[in-house]
Specification:
single chain, two-stranded antiparallel ribbon, 5 helices, 14% strand
């Protein structure tokens, strides 16, 4: 379900990035061109970090709630307590999961010059650049 949601979000929000590419920068921070390969790499990194962000809440909270329901008497006569407890646990988990998942990949990622489009490699060759990597902002 998470992957379906992310697929829908990405197809709605990032088609121009996939079609036109995203800016790639040389070692001086100057835009060299727009790369579809860098856009694909950025989207893969964002999807992976978003899945990591959601996993603790979707995996840990059901285990905790099941344990509390079956092994303790916390909810005996207080069934109304389940919903606020789940919301509180989710808030607590996301407080840590969100920044950790965002930190898995650097905001500015790099891509090998060998993996970008030929037009960008030609532009680098014309300018006399010997760069082996280009950088791009992957987004969140």
């Amino acid at each position: 379900m998470i992957v379906q949601h992310l697929s829908l979000c990405l197809t709605v929000t990032t088609p121009s990035e996939l079609l036109n590419g995203i800016d790639v920068l040389n070692e001086n921070g100057e835009v060299v061109g727009q790369s579809q390969a860098a856009a694909r790499s950025a989207i893969v990194q964002v999807v992976f970090s978003r899945i990591l962000m959601a996993t603790p809440g979707m995996g840990l909270i059901p285990v905790v709630m099941n344990t509390l329901e079956t092994k303790t008497k916390v909810f005996k006569g207080r069934a109304w307590l389940a919903a606020p407890l789940q919301v509180g646990l989710l808030g607590f988990v996301l407080t840590f999961a969100t920044p950790l998942a965002c930190a898995v990949f650097e905001q500015n990622s790099s891509i090998s010059v060998k993996n970008v489009e030929q037009s960008i490699r030609d532009k680098l060759a014309e300018s006399g650049s010997e760069a082996k990597f280009l950088t791009f902002n992957k987004g969140l």
